Amino acid sequence: MIFDSKIIYNKKISENFYHLKLKIKKNLVPLPGQFVNILIDDSCDIFLRRPFSIFNYENEKLEIVYKVIGKATKILSSKKKGETINFLGFLGNSYLDFISNNDNTSNDIILLGGGTGIASLNFLCQWLKNKKYKFTLLYGAKTKKEIFFLKNFKKFNTIFTTDDGSYGNKGFITHYLEKIVNNNSLIFACGPEPMLLTIKNLELKNKIYASFESYMGCGFGVCLSCVIKVKTDNNGFEYKRVCKEGPVFDLNSVILEKD
C-alpha cells in the first residue's frame, strides 16, 4: 500500500550516511527484514522508487539509515523536517519467518552486517533482545568513518571490524564468523554480494539466511528488475524476485556470481 508520512528529522550521522525518521500511521507495523520503496522525486530521470531497509520502528515512528551514493539519495538527503515522504510498504518477507521455522530459542544466532546491510539487521537485533534470544552481531565497515550509531550497537553483543583497522578488529567479518560459529548457530546476513559469496564459500553446515540489496524498480514483483537465480531440486535454477519472494533467502540456495 502507498502512504504519505511526515519527516520528523533527516540528519547526517556519519560520512555520507543519513538517518531519516518518519511519523507513520498507527496501524502500520513492519517486521524486521522488510523494506519500503520511497518516491524520491517525480521528475523523469528519477521517476522510479528506491528501496530502503527498515532500521527501526517504535511508537508510530519509522527509521531508515541510508548512504548517499547517487542523485536520488542526494535529493533525499536534502529533504527537511515537516516535508512529506511518499512510500510503498511494508514489503517483502521477514527474518522472523526463518527464526520461527527453526525454533532456535536455545541456540546461538549470529548476525553479519556489512556496509549499509547493518541497517536491516539493527531492527532484528532490537527484536531478538526484546525476546531474550542469545545472539552475536558482527558489524563490518571499510573504516571507522562508516560506522554509525556506535553507542547503539555496543549495547548488543557486537564484534566490530574495519578493513583498515581504524576501529575494532582489522579485517573482514567473515573471518570472525569462522572463529565463533558452532554447529547449532543460525546465521543471518545482510551486505554486499561479495560478502555473501564469501560466507557461502566457507561451506558451513549451518542454516544461513541472507537479505539481498538488489535494485527494485517497483517493489511488488512486476518490473522484474531485482531477480536472482535460485537452485531447484532438479539441479537447475529459477528466477526469484527479491522484492516479492525475498528479500531474505536461504543463502545456500542462491546462485551468486563465481559460484
Radius of gyration: 18 Å
Strand content: 35-45%
**CATH fold-type name of the largest domain:** Rossmann fold
Element-level helix/strand string:
EEEEEEHEHEHEHEEHEHEEEEE
**What name goes with the CATH superfamily of the largest domain?**
Nucleotide-binding domain of ferredoxin-NADP reductase (FNR) module
Q: Strand pairing plus helix content: what structural class?
A: alpha/beta
Averaged pLDDT: 89
Number of domains: 2
Query: What is the number of helical segments per DSSP (H or I, 4+ residues)?
Result: 6
| CATH architecture annotation of the largest domain | 3-Layer(aba) Sandwich
Strand order of the largest sheet: 4-3-7-1-2-6-5
Give the CATH class of the largest domain: Alpha Beta
Helix content: 10-25%
Give the number of DSSP strands.
Answer: 17
Structural notes for this entry:
The chain is α/β, with parallel strands linked by helices and 259 residues long. It has six helices and 17 strands. The chain folds into two domains: 90 residues, Elongation Factor Tu (Ef-tu), domain 3; 161 residues, Rossmann fold (3-Layer(aba) Sandwich). It has a seven-stranded antiparallel β-sheet. The chain has a seven-stranded mixed β-sheet with strand order 11-10-9-8-12-13-16, sandwiched between helices. Strand 12, helix 6 and strand 13 form a beta-alpha-beta unit. The protein is globular, with a radius of gyration of 18 Å.
